[in-house]
Structures are given as C-alpha cells and as structure tokens.
C-alpha cells in the first residue's frame, strides 16, 4: 500500500512539474490574463469588506518606455542581465543582515518576483520558497530576459488594485505608460518595495531620495544600449528558438 502511495505521489509530482513547465512555455508568448497576487488582493478585499477594482492593461515590450525599464532594473536588480535567476552575492548579504536582527532585507531578483507574483501566494514559508525556486528556474530557462522584464512591468503592483505600468501611469500621473518622463519612471521604480504605502505621484522624503538614488544608475547602465544586451543574454549553447 505504501509503495502504491509513493508511486502515485511520484506520478502526481511529475505531472505537476510537466504541467507547470508547459504553462511557463505558453506564457512566453501569451500575455498572462492575471496573476496570483491579483487574485490574492481581490480575496483580501472581500474578507476585509473593502472591495477594490483591479486595474491592469497589458502593454507590449515596444510600447513600454525605456526609462521605466531601466529604472526598475536600477532600483530592483542591477545584475539582471548577468544572473540566471538568483543573485547569490545579494542573497548572502541579505542573510548576513537579517541575522543581525532589525528590519528584514530581501534579495529577490526580477525573475524571482515574476515567479512569485504570477504563480504563488505571499508569505515566507520554505514550501513557497521552494516552489518559487522551481518557477524561477523555468522562467529563466524558457523566457528571454526581455520577456521577463515585459511580464514584470505588466504585473507589478503599484498601489491598491493597481497592477502593471499602464495602470500605474494613469493612476499616479494621468498619462499612458509610453509618455512617462524620466523622473516619473524613477518615482514608480522607487515605490516598488512598498507600493501600497508609498505613492509615486505624492512621494514622501524617503521615496524622493530613493528616486534620486535610482536616476544615476539609469544613466550608468547605458539606457537603450543596455536593453539591447538583454536580447543576447543567453549562453552560446542555448537553442536558437529559445533565444528569439
């Protein structure tokens, strides 16, 4: 009986792994209709008795402003083009910091944040972290860097019920995402660590300082030249169809 149960569980695990890989592969080309975080926020609003209208409009890569792409990389993951899903040095630094007590410091890359927002629930359990590792690996294997950033910018939370760059631009600055200025882009990137309590359009002193800190790396990274590097950010042995 125990052997049968083990075999059944093993088969179930294989099916889940294969199904998740197929889902990630499909989302390489198909815009995700929503995210797990959006579902979670909607359920939270029902439980709290404070319904919210989720705002999200998909913008393809070509319509997302370069300034916002670079600002998010500068503020959240400056090694985005070099790592393969995990910034080991940042993880070690965060672990050392957290062992000293005080406020917790995260070390999630953009790839990890996409995996978490798209497929998983909030929390810090080892189970969730393990599943996040799996989905991050799939995303890095099956998506180009441009696609990872495109999905991130269309899925990130930028306020209560506000998801994605287009909804964020309209909510905070009453404009479309393609028309964001450099300063507006840096302010949107600055609030990403705490988007429900910080405002990009009415920044407090901390957000203003953080936005000012983000703007110099935006120039140092190289702007549109850096973004062109993302298209080639794959090893030479990578299959050609996965580089496209």
Architecture overview:
With 244 residues, the protein is mainly alpha-helical. The chain has a single domain (11-243), classed as Biosynthetic peptidoglycan transglycosylase-like (Penicillin binding protein transpeptidase fold, Orthogonal Bundle). It is built from twelve helices and no strands. Helix 1 packs across helix 6, helix 5 (110-119) packs across helix 6 (126-142) and helix 9 (182-190) packs across helix 10 (205-221). The radius of gyration is 19 Å and the shape is globular. The model has no long low-confidence stretch (mean pLDDT 88).
Features:
single chain; Penicillin binding protein transpeptidase fold; 244 residues; globular; mainly alpha; 60% helix; 0% strand
Q: Radius of gyration in whole Å, from Cα?
A: 19 Å
Overall residue-averaged pLDDT value: 88
Structural class: mainly alpha
Number of strands: 0
CATH fold name: Penicillin binding protein transpeptidase fold
- Main CATH class: Mainly Alpha
Question: Describe the biggest sheet?
Answer: none
Cα distance spanning the termini: 48 Å
User: What is the CATH homology-level superfamily?
Assistant: Biosynthetic peptidoglycan transglycosylase-like
Judging by the overall fold, what is the CATH architecture?
Orthogonal Bundle
| Poorly predicted regions | none
Helix percentage = 55-70%
